[in-house]
Structures are given as structure tokens and as C-alpha cells.
Write a structure and sequence with these properties.
The protein is mostly helical and about 450 residues long. It has 19 helices and no strands. The protein folds into three domains: about 1-185, Growth Hormone, Chain: A (Up-down Bundle), CATH 1.20.1250.20; about 190-245; about 250-459, Growth Hormone, Chain: A (Up-down Bundle).
Length: about 450
């Protein structure tokens, strides 16, 4: 029980920082005297590091000890949170956020691995993974509300300091309750591939975010985008030759696996990118809401995700993952496109209704994603396949914050910019739905309940 308490607490802390920072963005902007591009880096610093390093996080635990790496990730997250809280400048805060994301890349797969080792019985593990999934979903739900309360009462540094007692408690419990385990002969470490993934995501995000300041045709922007393209080509070449590749290129030979991962990128791009703009820009800057009120206004969306995820699990068990995932993408895309009607005068019931629809769509779309790839890949590749889907969604999130934020920042009218970015988000999601609808159906297999129960949280 105490091992699970440590794993759940660490997961909650790491995933809370995916959403808690959004409502604090305007306060940070005022205190550190930055612009929208600076806010994008504050959010993307965490997401980029998490996306780039998540595939390696589990392998490090397998090689060097799951307990050691998990507790090390917790300690690193606590230290990075303190650095963020005391950051005197934007640069220091972005560094702290990157360190938080790197630590989360150790914590989230580490917690899953510890649960797998501690609960070998498949049925019992399925129940525990369901509880773990609820802990992560609660973190996503609590982020905007808790962040708004802390910002309005104690100031924005408190959203980082709240991690300290949670992390210290998880470490103290884990030191006593978690047994050490390792399987170094199965650990797939790929340093060259890892560095190239960082290069692709970092250069691409820099080029998009900074294009507004330097211009799309400037040497800095063109150089960054060219560096991202070169790193991507080198990554493909390196991964094809690696004995134990970070990114298993062979799995992408199946068009269904490729489409599912592209759809995950699209969902992260559209849904999570739009969530950043809705909370940081629309609610607070355009409508003038406080951080606390913004958290309350966003609750319909975040609360709708949890029951929709549970329904998606049941639909997946009855019909397979393809139908609920397709329905989720269509609902999410339609709701995001409909949000293009938002302006500073539209009534909140209309906003709340679209938020609920968007939350339902995301809950239906996210949960079956890992189950979908598990219908395709051999069982011995299930772990890396699920990790690839989760990473794809985080990559999409980082790109969505960069691209959609740049659309808003580059428009003279911020309301028109918001509308344009939401239309783009809706179109991207609906395009992904079209891809899912066109793909050939996978052969029927028994549903993988343990993965389905846990999947909502890896978002």
C-alpha cells in the first residue's frame, strides 16, 4: 500500500504541473515583464523536456534501478520547483521548467514500472492501474482550480512551492516502502537518438515561437527550422541502424500504428494547445478574469474528461478502441471549431457548454489510444508502443502551444487571433478524425484492460 501511495503522489505532483501553470501565466508575465512568447516558453519548457525524454525515462529505471531512478526523479522535481519559485528572471524560470519536465519523464514511467513490479497479478494490476489513472486525472482537473486559488492568495511562486511537501513525503515513504529492482539486459538506451530528439523538438519550437520577433524569413528562424529538419533526417538514419533504438522505426511500417500516433500528435496540438490559450489569453487577458475565476470557468471541461474516460474504457471493451477514439476526435474537433465564436461579450453558459463537449471528446479520444496500438503490435513490444503514443501526444502539445500561440501573437487583433487559432485547432483534429476513419481496421484482439485504465493519465 505504501509503495502505491508514493507512486500515486509522485504521479499527481508531476502531472499537476501540466495544467497548474496556465492560470498563473498573466501574473508571471506581469512580474517578469515578458510577452506571449515568454509565456509559451514557460509552458513549453516543461512539455518539451517531458516529450523528449519520456521514452528514455523507463529504460533508465530498468537499467540503473527502478527505485533509484524514481526517487531521483522526485528529488529533481522538488529542487526544480524551488528554482522556479525563486526565479528572478524569465530565463531562470524556463530552465527550472525544463528541469521539471525532465524529472517528470523519470517519475511517470517510473511509477508505472514500480506498479508492474509490485502487483504481478493481471487482474489486481488492472484495478491498481485504474486507481493510478484516477490520481492522474484528478491532477489534471485540480490544476486550474488549485492554481487559481494559490495565485490569487499567495502569488504565482506558490504553485511551485506546493510540490515541495508532496515530493518530500513521496520520497520519505518510497525510501522505506519501495524494493529495488532492475533488468539491465532489457534496457534500451540510445544516447544518439535521445540527443537528436531533443534537437528536433528544441529547434522546431524555437523557430516557431521566435518567428514573430525575428520574422519568418530571418536567418535565425530559417536556421532553426533547417536545424530541426536536419536533426529529423539524422534521427531517422540513426534509429534505423540502432540495435536498441529509442524510436522503434519498424513499428511505423504498419500504417495503422503510424496513423494512431499522428492522431495523438494532432490531439495534443489542438486540445492542449487550445487549453493554454483559453486559460492564459482568453479568460484572463481578454475577459479580465482573475486566476481563481479562470480555474472555476475551466472546470466544466476538466471535469467532463474523467467520466468520458470511464465510458471510453467500457466502449473499448465492447467494440474495440477505434469507434470511441473516432467519435472523440470528431466531437473534440467540432467543439474547438465552434469556439471560434468566442469574443469578449459571449455569455458563459455558451462557453461552459462547449467546454463540456470538448472535455467529453478528449476523454473519449485519449483513453483508447494505447489499446489501439496494442491491437497492432506484438505483445513483447507493448511497452514501447504505449510509450510512443504518450510521447506523440506530448510532442503535439509542445508544437500546439508554439504554433497556436504564434497565430495569436502575430495577429493585430487578439480576439481575431484567438478565433483563428481555435479554427486551426478544430481543423487539425477533424483531419486526424478523417485519417482514423480511413485506416484499415486492426484484427480483433481481446481488449487490454490494464493499459486502457491507465491511459488517461499519461496525457
Amino acid at each position: 500500500m505504501w509503495l502505491l501511495v508514493s507512486a500515486f503522489a509522485g504521479t499527481f505532483m508531476a502531472l499537476l504541473d501540466l495544467t497548474i501553470v496556465n492560470v498563473a501565466a498573466p501574473s508571471v508575465q506581469a512580474d517578469l515583464n515578458t510577452d506571449l512568447a515568454g509565456l509559451q516558453w514557460i509552458v513549453d519548457g516543461f512539455t518539451l523536456a517531458l516529450a523528449a525524454l519520456m521514452l528514455s525515462g523507463g529504460s533508465l529505471g530498468d537499467r540503473y534501478g527502478r527505485k533509484r531512478v524514481f526517487l531521483g526523479g522526485l528529488a529533481m522535481f522538488v529542487a526544480a520547483s524551488v528554482l522556479c519559485a525563486v526565479a528572478p528572471s524569465l530565463a531562470v524560470l524556463v530552465i527550472g521548467r525544463c528541469l521539471q519536465g525532465a524529472a517528470a519523464a523519470l517519475i511517470v514511467p517510473g511509477a508505472l514500472s514500480l506498479i508492474g513490479q509490485a502487483v504481478p497479478d493481471p487482474r489486481a494490476r488492472a484495478r491498481v492501474m485504474g486507481y493510478w489513472g484516477m490520481a492522474g486525472a484528478l491532477a489534471v482537473i485540480a490544476g486550474p482550480l488549485l492554481g487559481g486559488l494559490l495565485v490569487d492568495t499567495l502569488g504565482w511562486p506558490s504553485i511551485f512551492l506546493v510540490n515541495v511537501p508532496v515530493g518530500v513525503a513521496a520520497i520519505a515513504i518510497g525510501l522505506r516502502a519501495i524494493p529495488e529492482s532492475a533488468d539491465p539486459e532489457h534496457a534500451a538506451l540510445d544516447p544518439a537518438g535521445q540527443l537528436l530528439v531533443i534537437g528536433v523538438l528544441g529547434a522546431l519550437s524555437y523557430g516557431v515561437i521566435e518567428a514573430r520577433a525575428h520574422g519568418w524569413g530571418s536567418p535565425i528562424t530559417v536556421g532553426a527550422l533547417a536545424a530541426a529538419a536536419l536533426a529529423a533526417v539524422l534521427l531517422l538514419a540513426v534509429e534505423r541502424r540502432a540495435v536498441r533504438p529509442l524510436l522503434p522505426m519498424g513499428l511505423f511500417g504498419d500504417a495503422r500504428f503510424t496513423v494512431t500516433n499522428l492522431a495523438s500528435v494532432a490531439l495534443g496540438f489542438a486540445a492542449n494547445g487550445a487549453f493554454f490559450l483559453l486559460s492564459a489569453v482568453y479568460m484572463q487577458q481578454l475577459r479580465g478574469y482573475s486566476a481563481m475565476k479562470t480555474g472555476l470557468m475551466l472546470l466544466p471541461m476538466t471535469l467532463a474528461i474523467l467520466p468520458a474516460s470511464l465510458v471510453a474504457g467500457r466502449l473499448n471493451a465492447a467494440y474495440g478502441p477505434r469507434r470511441p477514439m473516432l467519435a472523440g476526435y470528431m466531437v473534440t474537433g467540432a467543439s474547438l471549431a465552434a469556439m471560434a465564436v468566442f469574443d469578449t461579450r459571449i455569455s458563459y453558459p455558451v462557453i461552459a457548454a462547449l467546454f463540456v463537449v470538448a472535455g467529453i471528446g478528449q476523454g473519449l479520444a485519449i483513453t483508447p489510444a494505447a489499446a489501439a496500438v496494442l491491437e497492432i503490435v506484438p505483445r513483447e513490444r507493448s511497452g514501447v508502443a504505449a510509450a510512443t503514443v504518450n510521447t506523440a501526444r506530448q510532442v503535439g502539445t509542445a508544437l500546439g502551444i508554439a504554433v497556436l500561440g504564434s497565430i495569436v501573437a502575430g495577429n493585430g487583433d487578439p480576439v481575431h487571433g484567438m478565433r483563428s487559432s481555435l479554427l486551426v485547432a478544430g481543423a487539425v483534429t477533424l483531419a486526424a478524425a478523417a485519417l482514423l476513419a480511413a485506416q484499415r481496421r486492426a484484427p480483433e484482439r481481446p481488449p487490454a484492460t490494464p493499459v486502457t485504465a491507465s491511459e488517461p493519465v499519461a496525457d
